[in-house]
């Protein structure tokens, strides 16, 4: 989501700021998993979690940030340049990363893999799980690092504090299907006690939990962990159970894992 220059300058009138869109003259790789930071330390420098550094990989200067949308260890690597330079630099870094396959078990994967991981970790996707009509309170994002209500300059803080005083109509939950079968998808209705109480926003087969799983909004009274609900798939109800995020076992998976 792009930030309006006017919004920034309204809050910082003395700030001399230029915003330039570099989307078409940049490339980015996300390297994620338990060995990702070890590999980065081997070929360059690993950034701190949520931190940003200027580093060098394969002779190419890169912006490397300890971010990413999978719930895993890792970093995002951004390469800048003209379209031709950027392509050449990106290919060089791609090859350097894949050279770590034998020692660090690095494998290429696409955006679909990111989508399954971010869902299992409980990370929302803008336009799918949240939009301009969804408040961070309903989405359960009114906590750092997503929304920090302690920051005085936070845009929308007053409106959100007012919203907190009102009863919410929906709340975001995670769920795991009870049995194998058709997988949940966006838009599927959720029933409880023969009533429609919510709707799926993201759903798919979750490879880590080895079961169909999803993210949804339901009426607050049905949001308690362990509550059984029905996902309507082609007009037939399939039992699921509400689960807190992340959906996987944190002692084994994700950046908090206790095992390597």
Give the SSE map.
Layout: H1 5-11, E1 26-32, H2 36-43, E2 52-57, E3 60-65, E4 74-80, H3 83-98, H4 101-104, H5 111-121, H6 157-164, E5 171-177, E6 189-192, E7 195-206, E8 211-218, E9 228-233, E10 236-243
Task: Explain what this protein looks like in three dimensions.
Strands 5-8-7-6-9-10 form a 6-stranded antiparallel β-barrel. The chain has a 4-stranded antiparallel sheet with strand order 1-4-3-2, with helices on one face. It has 260 residues and is an alpha+beta fold. The chain starts with a helix and ends in a 17-residue tail after the last strand. The chain folds into 2 domains: 5-108, 2-Layer Sandwich (Gyrase A, domain 2); 123-243, Beta Barrel (Elongation Factor Tu (Ef-tu), domain 3). It is globular and about 60 Å long. Helix content is 21%, strand content 27%. It has helices spanning 5-11, 36-43, 83-98, 101-104, 111-121, 157-164; strands at residues 26-32, 52-57, 60-65, 74-80, 171-177, 189-192, 195-206, 211-218, 228-233, 236-243. The protein contains 6 helices and 10 strands, in the order αβαβββααααββββββ.
